[in-house]
Sequence to fold (147 residues):
Amino acid sequence: MPVYHHILLAVDFSPQDNQIIQRARNLSLQSGARLSLIHVLDNIPMPDTPYGTIIPPDTKTDDAMLEAEKQKLNQTGDTLGIDPACRWLIWGEPGEEIIRVAGQENVDLIVVGSHGRHGLALLLGSTANSVLHHTKCDVLAVRLRDD
Ligand code: AMP
Fold:
């Protein structure tokens, strides 16, 4: 198995996230890789915010929905012991932003679920598909069980 140096874990906060989180955690422990975390905001309204805008997860806003998303990201980040500087919360299209951050941060493995909120009925969801087709690094699509 290749040794990875920087793993990017993409979470959509669906009930199956735990399975991906455990896999990414084990892989980073086994290979000694740095672990980064990303959630792309695509399900809350962000008027006047251009796609690709980075939302600092450690700053306060008046927007309750945004605060809830930050909290979820920070909870997962805390559980995994991820440095706050390696927690990415970005407004945009999930596939595009995951690929962009992976390139920018020299990630050599992206971990996604086989299907999440966008691909409930699919073997491979739209985000997983887009990441697999368009990124230059390795991608692990964790086969999610719905039970
Ligand atoms: P999908 O292809 O959208 O059904 O989701 C498959 C996987 O892509 C999920 O299990 C996550 O790992 C990742 N993913 C989907 N949407 C997002 C998002 N908004 N932010 C970060 N990762 C996501």
